[in-house]
Design brief:
With 948 residues, the protein is α/β, with parallel strands linked by helices. The strands form 10 sheets. It has a 7-stranded mixed β-sheet with strand order 13-12-27-26-25-14-15, with helices on one face. Bound molecules: iron/sulfur cluster (3 copies) and FE2/S2 (inorganic) cluster.
Length: 948
């Protein structure tokens, strides 16, 4: 496969419906009104020379290279800034234009360093290309004139360099940072020859406001901004389109290769989730795939205190299978289970749950969605009939009001956050419900209209109070409710929310949110036009997570903000394939497509194809597996790509459960924390080494394509097949496309999905079946999936986790842009420079009361446990609230979180833990002991006979 060159049309596409016909160099062309002449010319294959224009950015008109002549008009206007007009006659290649362009290029080249042959961008430089395109052969002014400033190279960013001497001051980088990323980190400082791109206040990139998204690097037409990997390895020679393996945005990338080496990841312009943009993780943080910590050989050990012993694949697989068989023979069929991975592909996840249901013969399968978005599944299925978000990302372009609840998109879902910011700068209104002042509360050119800084744990009360205002002030969209929802249930609900106890004034007392903010936000959402709700784990990870999801669904129905573009209820899903892992049947009570295991017809369908009886009883959830392990009834587990010890709550309980098992099989890239308790380690493959699909937060199924051979020898799905075969349940597929064919056969919402279709269309959003052969961008357009929309009474019940004299503060947790989840991958990349450790954010008032200074070590304790970390004093958190991330195992913040969980789904209550913070001298005793345990557990025995 050759390098995939995106066509650059020079300016963005016009969305106008009216068409305009003109003639360019004698060829008639019809394009939408508002299209630039440059783009219209490109539509008929006529590439007008350009330097400052690119179709990711609005036209700027600074380089004067794209001049054209228009019949009946004087002068030579720039084609990038001149829109088409009906009947226009344009010439792009007259002798006068050729001379003018040569003149422009002469000026550029006369002040450019003449080191093309040794330049890292040689062969991949638009300045070089344009010199060729205009036929420049000589420079009349010589090469000894004044040069662009050369203050040296800024290599402060770990991933790219900035070399001002090569800059042509086209401003593409500045505009990319503004228009695409929305960070506004760059300006052009100085004038004339002295003008230079300046990050923030003429700082090095690393010290500036730059968030390392790389949009400027991608936009730069020269080597001024260039990836360090290109400088080190050379320019790429081939590219394969694949999908990011970090977050639920699901950015599509061109993996650009030189030989078998990955040179760079370039966001794919045709990617429908990201439209050519990315964040620092997807674009740059792929070094973990070749990190020295990666384990490439299978290993086993009898006891978890033994050193690991490297063995052949056969030995490892046979050992694991024989242990599972022994355990089931001794303790019963239900004594084993497994956990699927939201980092692995749909096909891999499907096979793990198939292995558990068909080979183990029980439903003891669960997934990490248990600890993040299981309440979304429950809440949206109950109210609307589908366990997924309602919109595509493009829909935000038509939103007039955005309500963000318990999500921090600029850190958690950065590429979608950039889309949101674009729309907000264009005038959409913004309401934020969050205990913290997240970046979107105030960021360049954006200020939230309402920020409701609610006390952690009061989501249900505040969202119900928004509904109170809407109902009592007559703002309900009655037409929508009568047509689309159950009217009787609505009336019961309306009576419930109208009660005085739900008024903003009453709710202010428990939530801390001023009543006028609740009233104002409710009125804006109900009356401001298209209202779209985006929410995150700040909604779900509570004892009332499912209730809040249903309260949100009620709010959208009551205002008619569902079932068309620009509106909807949208969970911002965490991991790259958490939507997919849920869709594939990773929960103990549901097979793929969210059908309950107790449904006879559903089971019969699976049994006919799989040739094994399925258990009609739901299996164990992760916390129940650990309880059962401690009871002695659950003895073996197969964990694919999931570090439950670090990511799940109440670490001690998890550790005790794992330690009580007789066979823990971990399949992963690294010896993760859970592997401290494993008996068999099966090395996994990275997303670069496998074929398959991921499903993002929009329900968009996208291809993951293998760009290099698996370093461990197998793709993850192949390992599951080996294990299943050894267990005596044959599984054979020649290619993951065959697994998708099986998924399609068994899952009505995937009935028309195939690799062939995905190759043809790029991606599809499920449901994709006979009724919607090209997928479903917006759900519930002509009625809810469940029939009538269901209003649910959402009684607020305060969490049992209460502050008091011993634990007076509330801890809430989250993540930051540069790190990902438990950090197993991002900690093994240069991203650590931005986040070397988890810090505890604490308000200055609370810090002062405790004598804590910025950077001091503090002990964070709850009734579940304690840990130590360093303090970060900030007003981002309100007094009484502290916040931290959970990216580093040395902190193990989940030692502190409790066993409380969502009443419906057991999703842990990560967002509310009563804690105390006191000064400390450094890491606590157990942290030091844990480091020693980890060191011991990671010992690998020397081979008995040294390899030749
Ligand atoms: S990397 Fe992104 S944030 Fe940083 S300057 Fe470039 S465009 Fe702006
Ligand atoms: S750094 Fe690159 S994109 Fe920015 S102004 Fe200079 S040449 Fe243009
Ligand atoms: S981490 Fe998320 S936002 Fe960043 S590139 Fe990957 S999919 Fe896109
Ligand atoms: S490309 Fe049109 S002025 Fe630069």
């Amino acid at each position: 496969m050759s390098l995939i060159q995106d066509i650059d049309y020079g300016t963005p596409a016009s969305k106008a419906e009216k068409q305009v016909t003109l003639t360019i160099d004698g060829v008639e062309v019809t394009v939408p009104e508002g299209t630039s002449i440059m783009r219209a010319a490109m539509e008929v294959g006529n590439q007008i020379p350009k330097l400052c224009a690119t179709d990711m950015l609005d036209a700027f008109g600074s380089c004067r290279l794209c001049l054209i002549e228009i019949e009946g008009r004087n002068g030579t206007p720039a084609s990038c800034t001149t829109p088409v007009a009906e009947g226009m006659v344009v010439k792009t290649m007259t002798e006068r234009l050729k001379q003018l362009r040569k003149g422009v290029m002469e000026l550029y080249i006369s002040e450019h360093p003449l080191d093309c042959l040794t330049c890292s961008a040689n062969g991949d430089c638009e300045l070089q290309d344009m010199a060729g395109a205009v036929g420049l052969r000589d420079v009349r002014y010589g090469y000894d004139g004044q040069r662009h400033p050369n203050p040296g190279i800024d290599a402060s960013n770990p991933y790219f360099t900035y070399e001002p001497s090569k800059c042509i001051v086209c401003s593409r980088c500045v505009r990319a940072c503004e228009e695409v990323q929305g960070t506004f980190a760059l300006t052009i400082a100085g004038r004339g020859f002295d003008s230079v791109v300046s990050p923030s206040m003429e700082q090095p990139f690393f010290d500036s406001e730059c968030v390392s998204c790389g949009a400027c690097v991608q936009a730069c037409p020269t080597a001024t901004l260039n990836e360090k990997s290109v400088i080190e390895i050379g320019t790429p020679s081939r590219a394969i389109v694949t999908t990011c393996a970090y977050c639920g945005v699901g950015c599509a990338f061109k993996a650009e290769m030189r030989g078998d080496e990955l040179v760079r990841m370039v966001p794919y312009k045709d990617g429908k989730a990201n439209r050519g943009h990315s964040c620092v993780k997807g674009r740059f943080a792929f070094g973990y795939a070749t990190h020295k910590d990666r384990i490439l050989n299978p290993m086993i050990r009898e006891k978890i205190t033994d050193p690991w012993r490297e063995v052949s694949w056969d030995e490892a697989i046979n050992y694991a299978a024989s242990e599972f068989k022994r355990i089931q023979a001794k303790y019963g069929r239900s004594s084993v289970g497994g956990i699927t991975s939201s980092r692995c592909t749909n096909e891999e996840t499907f096979l793990v749950q198939k292995l558990i249901r068909a080979a183990f013969g029980n439903n003891n399968v669960d997934t990490c969605a248990r600890v993040c978005h299981s309440p979304t599944g429950y809440g949206l299925k109950t109210t609307y009939g589908t366990s997924a978000g309602t919109q595509d990302f493009d829909s935000v372009e038509e939103s007039n009001v955005m309500m963000i609840i318990g999500a921090n998109p600029t850190d958690g879902h950065p590429v979608f956050a950039s889309r949101m910011k674009t729309r907000l700068r264009d005038g959409a209104k913004l309401i934020i419900l969050d205990p913290r002042r997240i970046d979107l509360v105030r960021t360049p050119h954006i200020e939230a209209d309402y920020h409701l800084p609610l006390r952690p744990g009061t989501n249900v009360a505040v969202v119900t109070s928004l509904s109170h205002v809407i109902v009592t002030e007559g703002l309900v969209n009655e037409k929508f409710v009568r047509e689309r929802c159950d009217w009787d249930e609505f009336q019961d609900w309306a009576e419930f929310v109208s009660q005085d106890r739900h008024s903003p004034e009453e709710v202010e007392k428990l939530s801390g949110v001023p009543a006028d903010l609740i009233r104002g936000a409710a009125r804006l959402y109900a009356t401001g036009g298209n209202g779209a709700i985006y929410y995150g784990l700040g909604v779900t990870e509570h004892s009332q997570g499912s209730t809040t999801v249903m309260a949100i669904a009620n709010l959208a129905m009551a205002t008619g903000n569902i079932g068309r573009r620009g509106v909807g209820v949208n969970p911002l899903r965490g991991q790259n394939n958490v939507q997919g892992s849920c869709d594939m049947g990773s929960f103990p009570h549901e097979v793929s497509g969210y059908r309950h295991v107790s449904e006879d017809a559903t089971r019969a369908m699976f049994e006919a194809l799989w040739g094994r009886p399925l258990d009609e009883e739901p299996g164990l959830r992760i916390p129940n597996m650990m309880d059962a392990a401690l009871d002695g009834s659950f003895k073996g587990i197969y964990i694919q790509g999931e570090d439950i010890l670090q990511s799940d709550p109440n670490t001690q309980h998890m550790a005790a459960g794992l330690a009580a098992m007789e066979c823990v099989v971990v399949q992963d890239l690294f010896l993760i924390e859970t592997a401290n308790y494993a008996h068999v380690f099966l090395p996994g493959s990275t997303f670069l080494e496998k074929n398959g699909t991921f499903t993002n937060a929009e329900r968009r199924i996208q291809m993951v394509r293998k760009v290099m051979a698996p370093k461990n020898g197998y793709e993850d799905w192949e390992i599951t097949c080996l294990l299943s075969n050894a267990l005596g349940y044959p599984m054979h597929y020649d290619h993951p496309s065959e697994i998708m064919d099986e998924i399609a056969k068994l899952t009505p919402t995937f009935a028309d999905v195939s690799f062939k279709k995905l190759d043809e269309l790029g991606s599809v959003q499920w449901p994709c079946n006979a009724a919607a052969p090209e997928g479903t961008p917006i759900m519930h357009m002509n009625g809810f999936v469940r029939g009538k929309g269901k209003f649910v009474i959402t009684e607020y019940v305060a969490t049992d986790e209460k502050t008091g004299p011993r634990f007076p503060l509330l801890l809430t947790t989250g993540r930051i842009l540069s790190q990902y989840n438990v950090g197993a991958q991002t900690r093994r990349t240069a991203n650590v420079v931005w986040h070397e450790e988890d810090r505890l954010e604490i308000h200055p008032h609370d810090a002062e009361q405790r004598g804590v200074r910025d950077g001091d070590w503090v002990k964070l304790s709850s009734r579940a446990g304690e840990t130590s970390l360093r303090a970060l004093i900030t007003e981002r958190v309100a007094p009484g609230v502290v916040y931290t991330t959970f990216h580093h195992p040395s902190t193990q913040v989940n030692v502190v979180t409790t066993e409380f969980s969502d009443w419906a789904t057991n999703c842990p209550e990560y967002k509310v833990t009563a804690v105390q913070v006191m000064p400390s001298n450094g890491p606590s005793e157990w942290q030091e002991e844990y480091e020693e345990l980890t060191r011991q557990s990671r010992r690998i025995a020397e081979p008995l006979v040294a390899a030749e």
